[in-house]
TrEMBL record:
Name the UniProt record assigns to this protein: Small RNA degrading nuclease 4 isoform X3
Record's GO cellular component terms: nucleus
Top-rank lineage group of the source organism: Eukaryota
Localisation per UniProt entry: Nucleus
Organism: Phoenix dactylifera (Date palm)
SMART domains reported in the protein's UniProt record: EXOIII (SM00479)
Amino acid sequence: MEEPILNADREVLAEIVRLSQKQGLKGREGGWKDFLHSNSLSYGAVYDPMRKSKDILVAFLQTFQEKDQKFFRKMIRRITEYKAFEKFISDFPGQESPQQRLVRLTMEHPHYPRFYSFPSHDEEWMFMPLGKVSEVMKSKTMISIDCEMVLCEDGTEAVVQVCAVDENLEVKLDKLVNPNKAVADYITDITGISAKDLEGVTCSLADVQSVLGFALRAEGEPHNCLNDAKAAMKLVLAKLEHGFDDPISVVDDNLSDSDQAKLLLHKIPVDVPYQELLKLFPENYNVDIKNDLKVRGPSYSTFAVFKDAREADEAFKGIEASESRDSNGRPQKNVFLEISTGKSISFYVRRMRAAAPANGCDPLNKRTAQDETNDSKRQRTCLHHCKHVEDIEKLKQELRQREEEIFELQKIVSALARKKGISCISTNYL
């Protein structure tokens, strides 16, 4: 049973050891560092698995129980296949389809491991057969999946709706799911689902997994979950159409009057009721904060809707905060707002339309501009460059990490409070 470990390449084994460190797995002699110390193998406090011999890596992995060994064998196969695929693409670059390239580039993104390293060692994890590799390499089928989650009394999150569409935006699955556990918060403002909607629902997560693993079928009417799945597929199709070298530009010349009368509010902490956002704007504005919230991890986004585009522009200009641009050149401001609890929160307010380049210079993408008279083809450059952009981005990233940690702690506290019968009021997802 240990043959896959013995036959694996050293680099693959090193990746498995690193994975065991991230997951906090321990064998008979403890974790990786414990193993090195107990066997006097931590030369000069060098713990990097990539700098250890294959014999040491094998010896460490053999200290784990059969359950962990089974997980290691699965991961060895997965990593080995991925490295073989990388080598194939490197040796025969013309054989990679646009769809496969998009998947590869996505997995190579620096944020991918952090946000999409799912716990595949858990008991609930399901591995689906891929079929013949030759067929997989030829396949251009794409499926976009989205789900709605609720917060349960045990502090976990559970799926209550799953939607899937194919590359033709045809509905393949639209299913309500019974979480089969006590629900603390249905987050109805976000999911659009209430306890009444799940009455009589017998479909379980296992049922949905069996459908997604094999033949997909369409049922039911569209929900917000379905719209999100379609939006993700449209983004993929746009990337395949426009290529991989440049970001997808947002063309907003045809924005409707109703869209121009909006401001996007995003990166709002999930524990902040959306009604609190009204405090950002003067009372003389007839503004409506939409309760159709879009949640992403520890934050959500929504729209502030004004009477017309002119009023929306005035409201944006009246916000006293530093202005920047998003990835598509649209002006946005990082605002701070004190809510009714006395807490100060930070989020972004963004216009719907991209700003016109100033003096023929686009500071966002640094593309060159030509003189309006066409008499000169001299390239113009933007002289305004902030030396602290990298530091600011690093601080923003750290702030997002802290927000995610706080979000997880809030769920734990909520679960403990319910377990001990402590009365508390949760403002999550209001």
